[in-house]
Design goal:
By secondary structure, the chain is α/β, with parallel strands linked by helices. The protein has 9 helices and 9 strands. The chain has a domain at 14-149 and 176-202 and 251-262: Vaccinia Virus protein VP39 (Rossmann fold, 3-Layer(aba) Sandwich), CATH 3.40.50. It is 38% helix and 20% strand.
Length: 267
C-alpha cells in the first residue's frame, strides 16, 4: 500500500482496510453486534418510508435490514470501501463512496442516521456528530454506537496487555479514541439534539464466539504494528489467540456504548 499522510481518513490508515481479510472481520462483527443494533434502531420506530442513512456500512447487514424495514429506495449506505456493498446496490439501496468527515452531505434530509464503530476512528469525531445532526430532518433520530475498552477489568493479563497496546497503536496509526464513547450522550447534546440518552451495548466476550473470532482476526491483522509498539510480545499475542478460542473465557472489557437523540421538530 502507498504511504498515507496525516490528511488520510483514519480508517484508511488501517493497513488491511479494503482487503478480503478485513471483509471477513466485518462479517464476524455483524454476527456479534447486529441483534443489539437492530434493537436500538427499532426503538426509534423506524418504519416504511423513513429516509435512512447508514454511515460506514461495513459489510452491509444493517443497511440491508433498514432496506427491508423502510424500503430500499429510502436507504443510503456510505463507505470508504463500497466494494463490500454490491449486494445492497442490487436491492436498490443507494451506495456511495463517502468520507463522512469531509464530503458533502448525501442529498436529502434523513429520518434516521446510524453509525456503528465508526466515529471513534475519526480525528474530528465531535465535528462529525454536528455534521450528522445537521443532516437530520426535523424530528429525525441519530443513533451512534462506538467502542470503549476498559483494560483494568480484563479477565486475563494477556487481554489487558492487548487492549493497552491496541489503544496506543490505534491512536497513533488512525487517530482512534476508544475513550470518547464514555462521554456519550454529551456530543449529541452539544450538536443540538434532544431526548438524548446512552447505555452500554455489548455481548459478553466468550471464547469461540463470533466476537472472539473477530477480535482474534483483528489482532492477527494488526500484529505487526502491535509488536512494533514494543508493549506486547509475540508470546502474549499467542495467548490472546488461545483465549479467543477457549469457551471458558468470559470477559467484559471490550465494550460498546450506544447513544441516541433527535433533531428538534420544526415549529
Amino acid at each position: 500500500m502507498s504511504e498515507r499522510d496525516e490528511s488520510t481518513p483514519g480508517w484508511e490508515r488501517w493497513p488491511v482496510a479494503g482487503t478480503t481479510d478485513e471483509h471477513r472481520r466485518l462479517l464476524l462483527m455483524e454476527q456479534a453486534y447486529d441483534k443489539l443494533t437492530i434493537g436500538h434502531l427499532e426503538r426509534t420506530g423506524v418504519a416504511a418510508g423513513w429516509r435512512c442513512l447508514e454511515v460506514g456500512a461495513g459489510a452491509g447487514s444493517i443497511a440491508g435490514w433498514l432496506a427491508h424495514r423502510a424500503g430500499a429506495a429510502n436507504v443510503t449506505a456510505t463507505e470508504l470501501y463500497p466494494d463490500y456493498l454490491s449486494g445492497l446496490a442490487d436491492l436498490g439501496v443507494r451506495v456511495l463512496r463517502h468520507d463522512v468527515a469531509a464530503d458533502e452531505a448525501p442529498s436529502g434530509e434523513f429520518d434516521l442516521i446510524h453509525a456503528r464503530l465508526v466515529l471513534e476512528h475519526i480525528r474530528t469525531r465531535d465535528q462529525v456528530v454536528e455534521r450528522l445532526a445537521s443532516w437530520l430532518a426535523p424530528g429525525g433520530w441519530l443513533v451512534l454506537e462506538d467502542a470503549s475498552y476498559v483494560p483494568q477489568i480484563a479477565a486475563r493479563p494477556a487481554l489487558r496487555k492487548l487492549e493497552e497496546a491496541w489503544m496506543r497503536m490505534a491512536a497513533g496509526m488512525m487517530g482512534s479514541d476508544v475513550d470518547w464513547a464514555r462521554t456519550f450522550p454529551l456530543p449529541l447534546e452539544r450538536a443540538g439534539l434532544t431526548g438524548t440518552s446512552a447505555e452500554l451495548s455489548m455481548p459478553a466476550l466468550r471464547g469461540g464466539t463470533p466476537l472472539a473470532a473477530a477480535i482474534a482476526l483483528g489482532v492477527r491483522l494488526g500484529a505487526g504494528a502491535l509488536l512494533a509498539g514494543g508493549t506486547i510480545t509475540a508470546a502474549e499475542l499467542d495467548e490472546v489467540y488461545q483465549l479467543c478460542a477457549d469457551p471458558s473465557l468470559v470477559d467484559y472489557s471490550f465494550q460498546a456504548i450506544v447513544a441516541w437523540g433527535r433533531r428538534p421538530a420544526a415549529r
